[in-house]
Specification:
About 35% of the residues lie in helices and about 20% in strands. The strands form 4 sheets. Strands 7, 8, 9, 10, 11, 12, 13, 14 and 15 form a 9-stranded parallel sheet that branches. The chain has a two-stranded antiparallel sheet with strand order 1-2. A two-stranded antiparallel ribbon has the order 3-4. The protein is elongated and about 135 Å long.
Length: about 425
């Protein structure tokens, strides 16, 4: 230890250190201010001197001929790299930088964007107007870019004659046209007669519960012959599309309206179910909602509804409205207490009732036996109606039976043939 340190007064070194630290702390704000000033000054100087009004934002310079419309084309990823290798073979036109080609050290690859052919018709309904602003002068220029032509697509549904549609608060619903044309007649499918057998026994088959599963619905449309009528539940988001496909395939379609069963609500038939506890006006509002889900159907079929179809007070207004709309009504025949036949006769409503449910026991053997009994009934009475659910086994057995029906002297007919004939007789 040095002698001066031993002889120095105690505490003097600590005071000097404190004064030095205080000086540093006092000068820090000034140092920070000077640093910020230098940074801001440099930034302002760069902004004034540098010729880059977009501040480093990625940009591309494209020559624009206002007399030639150009279709935008965006290429990225492997496609862009592949296009870069074919630059020499590409037609002349504006280019866009899409990054360096993979494995290339030659810099950016410019992807040609060919202009639209001069004789290509512009899609007026799909054009876009782009405003180009010059970064230096502020000049504005509007360029119209035609969109790609709309690709032709198959119609989602057969056109619905607007003369047969009435607009309500619930949506479009069927009506009788001013010239007296009924939807049941307008949407009926033609009947193919059996050669040489004008009086052949007729069988009408209805497959209900269609539209719930898209896969099963597509199977029913494609596997079953067009003479088989399909009854659609109204709840699927694309029921209108599926119903249109069925009509294009030659099927008549029905609206399957949910009605109150005996053990409702434990056995709930779905939203907007027609209920005996509601007034006729309330049930008609629900019926309009059900009717508006899709169009093109020839009539209405009941879904469940053992309690509802037995109540004339509740059911009669629905049947009268069905007749007023120019539709037919199909009773599934499951409820012996149904008043549908009696009220339909009094309301001049074309009506059909199923003689049997084919898949009460949903096995291949039992469905085959039921189809055999239905065939016998048709031979005895001249006509018979059978109903089944949209089960895979039901669709399979009905399709197999229908293929051989004509060879056995039977005529498979859509449901309007039976219902309209019943009205006339």
């Amino acid at each position: 230890m040095a002698a001066d340190e031993l002889s120095a007064p105690l505490g003097q070194e600590i005071k000097r250190r404190r004064r030095f630290s205080a000086a540093i702390i006092k000068s820090m704000p000034q140092a920070i201010a000077v640093a910020l000033g230098i940074f801001l000054g440099g930034f302002v100087l760069w902004a004034v001197v540098a010729d880059n009004p977009f501040g480093g934002e990625p940009m591309v310079a494209v020559p624009i001929d206002p007399h030639v419309a150009m279709a935008p084309k965006i290429i990225s990823g492997p496609v862009a790299r592949e296009a870069g290798t074919r630059e020499a073979d590409a037609p002349p036109g504006p280019t866009r930088y899409d990054g360096p080609a993979e494995g290339s050290a030659d810099g950016p690859v410019m992807i040609p964007v060919p202009a639209a052919p001069a004789n290509a018709p512009a899609n007026a309904g799909n054009t876009r107007t782009v405003t180009i602003i010059d970064g230096k002068t502020g000049a504005r220029q509007d360029v119209v870019i035609p969109g790609a032509p709309d690709a032709p697509s198959a119609p989602e549904a057969q056109p619905t004659d607007q003369k047969l549609v009435e607009t309500t608060s619930q949506g479009p619903i069927p009506k009788i046209a001013a010239n007296g044309m009924r939807p049941a007649e307008a949407y009926a499918q033609p009947v193919k007669p059996v050669p040489g057998k004008p009086d052949a026994p007729r069988v009408a088959l209805i497959v209900g519960g269609v539209g719930v599963s898209a896969n099963i619905t597509n199977d029913a449309i494609s596997k079953l012959p067009g003479a088989v009528t399909l009854a659609f539940m109204p709840y699927s988001y694309d029921v209108d599309h599926l119903a249109g496909r069925a009509r294009r395939a030659g099927h008549e379609i029905l609206l399957q309206a949910p009605m109150e069963p005996f053990n409702y609500p434990d056995n709930d038939s779905g939203p907007q179910t027609l209920l005996t506890s509601l007034s006729p006006e309330q049930n008609l509002e629900r019926l309009y909602w059900l009717m508006s889900r899709f169009q093109g159907y020839v009539g209405i079929a009941s879904a469940m509804g053992a309690r509802f179809t037995a109540s004339e007070q509740s059911f009669a207004p629905i049947l009268r409205e069905t007749a007023k709309r120019g539709l037919i009504f199909v009773d599934d025949g499951a409820n012996p207490r149904s008043v549908a036949a009696r009220v339909a006769g009094a309301s001049n409503l074309p009506f059909a009732k199923a003689d049997m449910i084919l898949d009460t026991v949903p096995t291949a053997a039992e469905i085959d036996h039921a189809l055999g009994r239905l065939e016998m009934a048709a031979r005895e009475r001249g006509v018979a109606v059978g109903m089944a659910s949209a089960l895979p086994v039901s669709i399979e057995r009905i399709a197999k039976w229908a293929k051989a029906a004509e060879s056995r002297g039977l005529q498979l007919v859509p449901i309007t043939v039976v219902a309209l004939k019943a009205k006339q007789s």
